[in-house]
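Hey,
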Amino acid sequence: MNIQSGQIAVVTGGGTGMGRALCRQLSAAGVHVALCDVSAAAMAETRSLCLAQAPAGTHVTTCLADVSQEAQVLAFRDAVIAEHRTQHINLLFNNAGIAGGGSFVNGNRADWERTFGVDWFGVYHGARAFMPLLVASSAGCIINVSSVNGFWASLGPGVPHTAYSAAKFAVKGFTEALINDLRVNAPHLSCVLVMPGHVGTSIALNTYDAMKMSAAQVALVRSRMVKGGAAVADLPDDAIRQLLHQRAIDFRDNAPTTADQAASTILDGVRAGKWRILVGDDAQRLDVMVRENPESAYEDRFAIAWRNGAPGLTGND
């Protein structure tokens, strides 16, 4: 689909990370942008960055909204209609996401459902709310951000990862199912599935404040780290908290793919008419490995081989 000046794009989770990068690149192309986020300060910064480089007359609007709550997404839609004076949009980026909800067996249920609510229902609510506005356009596209954890439900040995993975699998299945649905019922629309690998975003920092973890939470993390071979059994609680906080910073700052690079890959893929976009060399490699040997995908050696840059595994490895 062509992305051009004068179109209207809606971006959830536009305050930071890939969402902010998408807003900046879209507005720089003269696309009017409506973004939502749970942080007013982050959105204000995104808007300022967008307007500093956008052509004159480009509109960038913000709205506080928790995408896990349908009423707030509907209010966001109504704000888009009012502030952009429109009955249609051209691009919908269901991008908002958080981490968390690792274990289904013994994890905190509220944490699990919060993660699933944002990462799956955020996409569902966004699609439901804005589909009529997409249908009303002459051409439109819905872009749903899944993850490599939408085809590989793991972070590696000894680390439960159920809520996030389940949500991202749901996003993948929903988007693929939309392909034929749109062809039959709205042929002027298309959909795109985005599956990023490790992208330098603040998702871990935005999900939880490690420095405020309770003693019980720290104890659970310490136990998991010890099982994974980390020499942290005797570290005090504050040292564990600081370690986790630094890991979140490193996840953002030391990623193989930046948020700007990811946004460029996504927008280039949309322009090229792709329905499936893998973001990052690590995502490309993992996709090949899972397809080559799915039966081994959850063995320890698989994750180790991926992290070590192996091109793939055979049944005899």
